[in-house]
Amino acid sequence: MIEERFPGHPILPYLLVLPSLLVIFVFLIVPFAESVWGSFFVSSFFGSKTVFVGLSNYLELFTSPDYLHSVVVTLLFSSFVVLVGLSASLGIAMLLNQKIGGLGIYQIALVWTYSISPAVAGTIWALLFAPATGLVPWLVSLVAPGYTLNWMTNGPLALFVVSLAATWKMLGYNIVFFLAGLQNIPDELTDAARVDGAGPWLTFRYITLPMLSPTTTFLLFMNMLYAFFQVFGLIDIMTQGGPGDATNLLVYNLYRDAFIHLDSGRANAQSVIIFIVIALAAMLQLRAATRKAVYAR
Amino acid sequence: MKKPDRNRRLALLTHLALIALVVVLAFPVYYALVTSTLSFREAYQYPPKLLPGGEFWHNIHEAWVRAKFARLFFNSTVISLSVALVKIILSLLAAFAYTHFRFRGAGLLFALSMITQMLPLPVRILPTYQLMADFHWINTYYALTVPFFASTTGILLFRQFFLTVPRELSDAARVDGAGPMRYFWQILVPLSRTNIAALFVIEFIFMWSQYLWPLIVTNTADMRVVQIGLKMLIASEQIAPEWNVIMAGTVIAMVPPLLVLVLLRKSFAQGIAMQSEK
What we know:
Chain A is an all-alpha fold. Chain A contains 13 helices and two strands; from the N terminus they run H-E-E-H-H-H-H-H-H-H-H-H-H-H-H. Chain A starts with 11 loop residues before the first helix and ends in a 6-residue tail after the last helix.
């Protein structure tokens, strides 16, 4: 419960929150409401004529093989980024947390990738995998002579490469948070478990993982947001959704429908669908975050 | 108790594993750096070169001129700095209200300010774009900055910190006759230095990395940002990309956020640690 620290200022708190709320209202809430509203209409967004069509934009999306394909691609991509990314960074953070000295140096040596933007990550991985000239295709040709690795013509490979690039970019961020979470676990807990005869695996499973769950759920949510949206630049630089539509993530599909095909009803409906997914994820995160109280003492 | 011998061997193994990981994770950037120092011909040599050449400044100059990087660099810097600063101020003010005052509707308003996280650009992209057009903000710094001014992360970070500040401080200020805003600027804000620095790192990097929004709300070369400049460098060479020049552009794009992170790394780490404490 918040205590009143400066009684006698009835208006001031409203003035203090006003700027933030104004921005949120004008640039977030109202436009979002318009997205919902617009998803029930068909028109070109810049045209004058709009026709109310009810849910038919949604029905059209869910019966469109292209859109469903984009859903599948997004699921594959984001589960790779989240699962591989989080487990790798948790592993690295646990190594860092071994109290073996040199932590500061390792920390900076691993964490700096946090500053790399998705577009920069995409550019660098496009270089590594550049067909016919890149380092990786060259290495592959050494191992398997006669085979040319070309991710620009190979859909599944392209999806794998963009997933790798996106995961790599996020490692620094995840390691920072996992390490902070690990350092907050009191030593007495893990020591006590060890004294009771628990091996490393049991300690990890029954002490570390539960104590870490607020960090993990937070990171799950942030990584999901990242894999859903922030990778736009990476995709636009590396593949533009191709080859074919092998890497056509939902956010890329949305961009195309909104700004290239100028199909506003369809774009707004996609926005709303994406929102529903985020809202569900946020609720799960909240539920997990409130559950942490059990471990907090 | 385990033998110290075994512990030492374990520590050595951990060091080796960590060093290997650092090398593997840094390799892509190392390779990019090397490529940015090669000539066009060297960049296409087989086997690929793994040691730097002597063309670094030439390539940097090439990228700088070709993609008009001076202007892009200026734009990205202005945008990232101003958004980071305004976000910090607005979050400080809001967090102050939520932690130091009891007012009607505080819970609801707080919930509303938490909503930013659930409404990222893609769930409102077309109407927000339309709004920019209605405001005549397309291709201006306003469009590139103002819609980003609210920050969930910031409000949460400062709120958490303000809750740990002992009540005696504000009481003492009050007894001395200082009003709430004086206490805020002279005591609370200076105390928040570490968190301010941490938020600055997060928001500067966040803004520097923006791609989709600048892509749609700008339409002339002089309003583009660095990230889009990379795309321009790549797209201009469809047949044989000049990887050496592209990587020089990449290096330029990497430096400012890296600098911010390295310079403020201590505060950044402390801020993150505080955030995950709760």
